[in-house]
Fold:
Amino acid sequence: MGFSKFLREGIWDIHSMADSSTVAQDMQEAKTTTEDMKKITAGLYYIYNTMEDAIEKHKDDIYVSKIYRKELSRKQSIKEDLEFYFGPDWIGQIYPTVAIQLYVSRIEYVAKTNPMLLIAHAYVRYMGDLSGGQMIKEMIKQALNLTNGKGTRFYEFDGIEDIMAFKKDYRASLDTLELTQEQADAIIGEANLAFLYNVNFFREVNRNVVYPDEIEKPYLLRAYERIKKI
Ligand code: HEM
Structure:
């Protein structure tokens, strides 16, 4: 059995917790609000910028090179969604919340100490976006009455013609990884941790607070500058 099957089996348990979280349930019931999407899109900006910069930096690594796919990049589409939800000065409004800073500092840490574990973060996010994400896209469009890809560019993979074929090829690449049992367990452990960071983020999104919160924003921006130096 290839590693992709072990990985999928290893996350399926925690996946059920993620897709039954309140935010995920709201998504599936087309109850997502514009406020939710502002918080989610701002959070995705920091997650994908951190993850994609780390993967790009380690793209020649013997492990990371197996999952490096330029067509997966979400940076540009997230910027388009941020412009849609916040307007042209979105960069001046957004900041990384507590849940997001915990999440991205973990990605930075594994990039520095054990880049092989970036495979877990890429898998959880990208395979999720290409799986449930494609259903979620339609539910968000319905909930917010969106058309022409506006506000859901994040879920549109312009560079991937056949998503099922792409996922099959991605799993086949995971199966070419030559891993010891210990390395395989570490990637599956990191993937479970990545799910916890996503659930924690969803719980934060679900809190009844506005975003941006001008009281917490300056504290978190200053903390982010210091945390980036770890
Ligand atoms: C509304 C919530 C969600 C729904 C309805 C959903 C649905 C699904 C479905 C149907 C699959 C199976 C796809 C297939 O067999 O090809 C799947 C796989 C997956 N989902 Fe989710 N999901 C949700 C939330 C999430 C979240 C929040 C994440 C991570 C952040 C995630 C990550 C994944 C991953 C990594 C896979 C495995 C892909 C694979 O190895 O085949 N999902 N999801």
In short: The mean pLDDT is 95.
